[in-house]
Amino acid sequence: MKEKAKLTKEDWIKAGFRALSKGGEQAIRIEAIAREIKVSKGSFYWHFKDLAALKKTMLEHWAKLATFDVIANISDIKATPKEKLLLIIEMSSGEKNVEYGGLRTEEAIRNWARHDKKAARVFAVVEKARLTFVRELFLQIGFDKNDSAMKARLLYAGLIGVEHLSIQNLSDMKADLVDLLEILCV
Asked: Could you report how far apart the first and last alpha carbons of the chain are, in Å?
């Protein structure tokens, strides 16, 4: 196969997520991904030692991009806590990045974490960070510690459920999450 000019590590990561979102963790295979991005599998080894290294990098990349960068960016914005929660909803329900597998990627990572200890560890760190950040925003709104923790869990659980329903075209993700936030802010 003719090598794609300037194929980057990011290209392999994105293709790995597309494979994951289509077929689950078992679909992350060097040969299949190479075919999808139209390069030889030899190009893979320019960027990664082996498949395990790609999977580890994918998980780290996802944690950074989908959680820690989001938290940092929202934290830096001058806005009320409720406006920050609305921004989280906007970012979560907006046009999902098709390059990374689209709307199905989070669900695929969640499924991966159910049976893979490495994925489960990363996923646990991500979920804890997300819940902690949302809880802090509810605290800033003025709810007590227990109510803030409960509201953070409900909003996060709502996000997971509505995201799943959106995949089936059974929910308007953004509208449903905004409605849920309004209920939780009472």
From this structure: 60
Residue pLDDT, tens place only, 148-175: 999 999 999 999 999 999 989 999 999 9
Asked whether residue 49 is domain-assigned, the answer is no
Predicted TM-score (pTM) of this structure: 0.91
Q: Which domain holds residue 156?
A: 55-184
Compute the distance between CA of residue 134 and CA of residue 151 in angstroms, rounded to an integer.
Answer: 8
Residue 84 belongs to some domain of the structure: yes
Q: Is 165 exposed, middle or buried (0-12, 13-18, 19+ CB in 10 A)?
A: middle
Helix/strand/coil for 144: coil
The answer to whether residue 119 is domain-embedded is yes
Concatenated DSSP letters for 102-135? TTHHHHHHHHHHHH-HHHHHHHHHHHHHHHHHHH
